[in-house]
Write a structure and sequence with these properties.
- By secondary structure, the chain is α/β, with parallel strands linked by helices.
- The chain has two domains: about 80 residues, lambda repressor-like DNA-binding domains (434 Repressor (Amino-terminal Domain)); about 190 residues, Endonuclease, Chain A, CATH 3.30.870.
- It contains 13 helices and seven strands.
- The chain has a seven-stranded mixed beta sheet with strand order 1-7-6-5-2-3-4.
- Strand 5 and strand 6 form a beta hairpin.
- The protein is elongated, with a radius of gyration of 23 Å.
- Pfam families: DUF5753, HTH_31.
- This is Helix-turn-helix domain-containing protein.
Length: about 280
């Protein structure tokens, strides 16, 4: 079960205890506020997340107003685990990039897996421009492309921080998919070769013909041993439960074992460059 589901269920159980202590039935509580009867059971069963107004009303009805602040704090903490993209990006891409930078500043060891994209910390400015412009268009958010791009490129300065280490594993497919025009992609691949020579960066490329240990369902970032960040089309998820972080660490290790490094990785990149140049 995901962190968000656990947190929602725990909150539901706490609200249920408040209702039972007040000797109220679910129907009585729902009637008092004009709610549908199913709302009570869904909240208490962890199937629906209450709003802040719901929590205030619930605590008022059960005679426990002192619980409001702690429950709302838990709700807001829960929302950091799972955030809708439109809410996260409503202020534009630069704000989201700054949030990433804050998380990265707290991290010493990075482990990053990507199946179809070049990771943000390794992107050229033109490749990054394409990715951010797609996000802006798809989610119909404020167009702050230049600010977002500048912030993303500024994030890359962390690669030169002496007390941090970076291990990137990328499927060869990410080098060959039509994610950018040939000239932009060629520049991007050249940058990967240069970055692979940096002492604090370990870059692994999983060849197309490699036997994959597990289906690559999505990319993910592991921050030390404390959190895993996963992005989907509609949402983002931050996992912090130790057993869930351990699962992603194990999965990363599997992909890392299938990857090629050093000169072998650079040869894979150069073959992709040759294929792009021939097709240009």
């Amino acid at each position: 079960m995901r962190d968000i589901a656990r947190a929602r269920l725990a909150m539901g159980q706490e609200l249920k205890e408040l209702r039972l202590d007040a000797r109220l039935t679910g129907r009585q509580l729902a009637t008092r506020f004009g709610w549908q009867g199913s709302k009570i059971s869904k909240i208490e069963g962890g199937k629906q997340t209450p709003s802040e107004d719901d929590i205030r009303a619930w605590c008022d009805a059960t005679g426990r107003p002192e619980k409001v602040d702690s429950l709302i704090a838990s709700l807001r903490a829960m929302e950091t685990l799972y955030g809708e993209w439109r809410r996260q990006l409503r202020l534009g891409t630069a704000t989201r990039q700054k949030s990433w930078a804050e998380m990265e500043a707290e991290t010493k060891r990075f482990r990053v897996f990507e199946s179809v994209l070049i990771p943000g910390l390794l992107q050229t400015s033109e490749y990054a421009r394409l990715r951010l412009s797609q996000v802006i268009a798809f989610h119909d958010i404020p167009n702050d492309l230049e600010d977002g791009l500048a912030t993303r490129m500024h994030r890359q300065e962390i690669l030169y921080t002496r007390d941090k280490s970076f291990h990137f594993v990328i499927l060869e497919a990410a080098l060959r998919l039509g994610m950018a025009p040939s000239d932009i992609m060629l520049d991007q691949l050249e940058r990967l070769i240069a970055l692979s020579l940096m002492p604090r960066i370990r870059l692994g490329i999983v060849p197309l013909n490699a036997q994959l240990p597990f289906a690559p369902q999505h990319g993910f970032w592991i921050f030390d041993e404390r959190a895993v960040h996963v992005e989907t089309v509609a949402a983002e998820l931050t996992l912090t439960l130790p057993e869930e972080v351990e699962q992603y660490v194990r999965l990363f290790d599997w992909f890392a074992e299938a990857a090629q490094y050093g000169q072998q990785a650079r040869q894979i990149i150069m073959k992709s460059m040759e294929a792009l140049a021939e097709g240009a």
